[in-house]
Amino acid sequence: MSEVIKARGKMNNSFDPQSAEKLEPAARKMVEQRARLLGPSYRLFYSEPVDFVRGEGVKLWDSQGNEYLDAYNNVVSVGHGHPKVVEAVHQQMKTLCTHTRYLHPNILEYAEELRPTFGGTIGDTGHTIFTCTGSEANDLALRIAKHRTGKQGVIVTSEAYHGNSDATAAFSPSLGEYSPLGTWVRRVPAPDSYRIDPTNLGRWLADHVQAQIDDLERHGDGLAAFVVDSLFTSDGIYSHPADVLKPVIEVVHKAGGLFVADEVQSGFARTGDKMWGYQRHGIDPDIVTMGKPMGNGYPVAGIGVRHDVVEDFGRDMRYFNTFGGNTVAMAAARAVLSVIQEEGLLDNAARVGKVLLDGLNSLAKDSEFVGDVRGAGLYIGVEIVKDKSSKEPDKARAAAIVTEMRNRHVLISATGYNGNVLKIRPPLVFSAADAERFLEVIRSVLK
Q: Is Transferase found in the keyword set (predicted)?
């Protein structure tokens, strides 16, 4: 049964409902209630699920009072229960919560603060449009791209995830073989710097994109957009070299398509050297999409878009989102951006990320099955292989490591097509001391 779930849902590190009888009575009761009340679509993490009841900073506590180090959750980008975000949401909620069809300064002030961070054309003269989720943001980006270009085709990387709406699921291959891709969708391989010579990796990727553009044009769809997460997180986390997207954007623009930078995973200071992941590649996208980390747990998301790209769409269409950009959402988002800037979390991600990368690289030297360590800032992938010479992925060992880390109260996950890349993605407030604790635990697990 567990293998069926993994194959159909494409979810690594999932709980097997058939093993519920092995759980403690209270946990078993909740699992049974979930099945009865929520149905079969929901998934739980870990072979033994965790019932968290409280969080603070980078720590979580379960119902038994056990403390866990959170090295996985980027939704709470500035830490669980950050007091500045909590206070901003509380004050605004008790004052006013309403939508964007009334004048209110919150949305304007946030747009003024956010737009310059994009740099390039969007940062100078672009616009922001707000949604509730990253899925909605990517859905909106697709609508704009199709309207702007008059084309239908979308190109993504082979294991990309861009959302779970009907439209975005159609170009999110990581959802698995039972989640159909659109006939207008084409895939290109991720820039696997572990197995491919990184010297000309950008040209290699651009050539693959061009081949798919040709195929889309041959079938009459043409190219509306190339959509990419610049850390290629669902593909296995490929952070370097940080210039592979330059040749790609040239090919995309030459074909008349739009370049959409999906920053749900790699944005908001995550990489440690730039506010946005695409900025590491030195490119100027047409649309930037944002999601999870934007409100530290409050559902707020959106897009940044070039004026010329959205001008016709804004004239011809009407976009309204009841909750997108509401006053409370903007209060949460403003607080998060303020915390990132005031607490120096971009620099913190770089500094603490280096501690993690250095420590993991040191561990890799003494391990026969840690094939590669890669990442930027506080987003790191550790590729687990059967042996370093063959570089053959070892999904079972990766899953065992994730499980044992959970057993030792440290949370990570796994990613990539083969599910063999450890995904380390803590909140941005992760400290050097937290990193040392993490390294101590993973060192003992790897041994």
A: yes
